[in-house]
Design a protein that fits this description.
Layout: H1 28-57, H2 63-93, H3 98-121, H4 129-142, H5 146-171, H6 175-180
Helix pairs in contact: 1-2, 1-3, 2-3, 2-4, 2-5, 3-5
Length: about 180
């Protein structure tokens, strides 16, 4: 007696994308380097602003003018530092993809702000406590209503994110342009 084997043949169809999907290649080394650039630039710019403020204070500059100048300088210092951090993050990690470069800039922004908040919570910010007091008084004079202060704070956070994204966009390597260029 012969044994019958029922053999069922199946046809498996696999669709493969044209390009191999690898996902985003975020370089955490670049993100940390960008965050350190932000902290270093912020330290240098804050020290410069403090030196200018103390020098202006000895020349009998009004307290409100000094506070307004400190608020403007601290805002510009943060924007410049985040811009430089975004540039450094994408340049050091050799990011070629635009979306990944922007993600790197956002990660530099988040990482830097978390580090700054942590350092302030640990008391490292007490060194610049007098300068921060001047900035707080100036902000209270510029926006006496709590709702206006909240909207100014929100605008400052969004503007700082845009500075980091602009820096990462500028620092991004453009592979297509460089690959086509002759050495």
């Amino acid at each position: 007696m012969a044994v019958e084997h029922n053999v069922v043949e199946r046809e498996v169809i696999l669709e493969r994308p044209l390009a191999r999907f690898e996902g985003m290649k975020v370089s955490w080394g670049g993100v940390w380097a960008g965050a350190l650039v932000v902290l270093g630039a912020l330290l240098v710019l804050t020290s410069l602003g403090l030196a200018i403020g103390v020098s202006a204070g000895t020349r009998n500059v009004s307290q409100s003018a000094l506070g307004t100048g400190a608020a403007i300088w601290s805002s510009l210092s943060l924007l410049i530092a985040l811009f430089l951090g975004g540039v450094a993050a994408t340049r050091l990690s050799m990011v070629w993809d635009r979306v990944t470069g922007l993600l790197q800039g956002m990660l530099v922004w988040v990482t830097s702000l978390v580090i700054v908040l942590y350092l302030n919570a640990m008391g490292v910010g007490l060194i610049f406590g007098s300068a921060l007091g001047i900035v707080t008084r100036a902000a209270a004079q510029l926006a006496p209503e709590p709702s206006a202060s909240a909207w100014i704070g929100f605008g400052a956070v969004v503007l700082s994110l845009l500075a980091a994204l602009a820096g990462s966009s500028l620092g991004q390597r453009r592979a297509a342009q460089r690959a086509g260029a002759a050495p």
